[in-house]
UniProtKB/TrEMBL annotation:
Gene3D superfamilies: 3.30.230.10. Residues 83-147 form the GHMP kinase N-terminal domain. One of its GO terms (molecular function) is ATP binding. This is Mevalonate kinase. It comes from Winogradskyella endarachnes. SUPFAM superfamilies: GHMP Kinase, C-terminal domain, Ribosomal protein S5 domain 2-like. Keywords: ATP-binding, Kinase, Nucleotide-binding, Transferase. The keyword Transferase applies.
């Protein structure tokens, strides 16, 4: 047995900000994916994934039935047979590994599910996001539900505010374009929960709160608008500002060996770095107007292009 594929995602803009109602833009990233599967001779990884699903089934049993109910007997049966999530999505990298699993479970076992083929009204999208938020909270404390939503729909999602999200189109890629969005591999696994608690602790500080509102959210919102409009000049101006704000105010979320590279990008304008997800490790997102220059400047780093301008 092998279920349909669910893809990873990249939150281009909005990390941390969306907790406080900034805009956000999340796109599917088809390079990584996962599917539910049963093998006759499971690997060690498959066995561990299955053990995690055993615990997850118990968690799903207790979710509010009014919100979402599952065919728990069939799910339990499949898990007893050794079902696991076969995934190439790296865990702790900010590209939505648990989100894809949640989407796969909902797709296969939820009763009365909202499907991708329906007319996706704002109400339906919000309901899905609420369901996914509850389902994903098992994996890292508090979840916005956006990762599974992105994975489930396989569409770019525009977050206007907490209660206003929509599926959106993004400008089509210029395959011969010099500009690019890329991922840098920090080589470290990041844990979401501790990073979010550092952020929540900082939020108690009035100076941090006003920086978030007056700088971080302002530039994030501008980046989202620029990206969707295809205004590249303005996008790079705002991404640079955002990169600066993150370096000055989110240091714990940036792995220490990247502090210098982050600064270097701001000084040379060869590239600008920003967090991908909650930070602390995993991937770092990069934006450049000239990918060849960026590759040269970041020699020795593992770099993956995800979008061309």
């Amino acid at each position: 047995m092998k279920g349909p594929l669910f893809y990873s995602k990249i939150l281009l803009f909005g990390e941390y900000g969306i907790i406080k109602d900034s805009k956000g833009l999340s796109i599917p990233y088809n390079f990584y994916n996962g599917a539910l599967k049963v093998d006759k001779n499971p690997s060690q990884e498959a066995i561990e994934s299955n053990e995690s699903l055993v615990r997850y089934v118990n968690y799903l049993r207790n979710l509010d039935k009014e919100l979402v109910s599952f065919d728990i007997d069939t799910l339990q049966n499949d898990v007893n047979k050794g079902m696991y999530f076969d995934s190439s999505i790296p865990q702790g990298y900010g590209v939505g590994s648990s989100g894809a699993l949640v989407a796969a479970i909902y797709d296969k076992y939820a009763f009365d599910k909202i499907t991708v083929l329906e007319n996706l009204t704002r109400e339906k999208l919000l309901k899905l996001k609420t369901i996914f938020s509850e389902m994903e909270s098992f994996f890292h404390g508090k979840s916005s539900g956006l990762d599974p939503l992105n994975s489930y729909l396989s569409l770019p999602i525009l977050i206007n505010s907490k209660d206003n999200i929509e599926a959106t189109g993004i400008p089509s890629q210029q395959t011969d374009g010099k500009g690019a969005v890329f991922l840098l591999d920090s080589g470290i696994v990041g844990e979401t929960a501790p990073m979010v608690s550092i952020f929540m602790e900082n939020m108690k500080n009035e100076g941090f709160r006003s920086m978030l509102k007056d700088q971080f959210i302002k530039h994030t919102d501008a980046c989202v608008d620029d990206f969707l409009k295809g205004d590249i000049k303005s996008l790079f101006h705002n991404t640079k500002q955002l990169s600066k704000v993150v370096l000055n105010n989110f240091k714990p979320m940036i792995p220490s060996q990247f502090h210098e590279l982050w600064k270097k990008g701001l000084e040379t304008n060869d590239y600008y770095l920003k967090l991908c997800g909650s930070g602390g490790g995993g991937y770092i997102l990069g934006f450049t107007e000239n990918i060849e220059k960026a590759k040269e400047a970041l020699k020795g780093q593992k770099l993956e292009v995800v979008y061309n301008f």
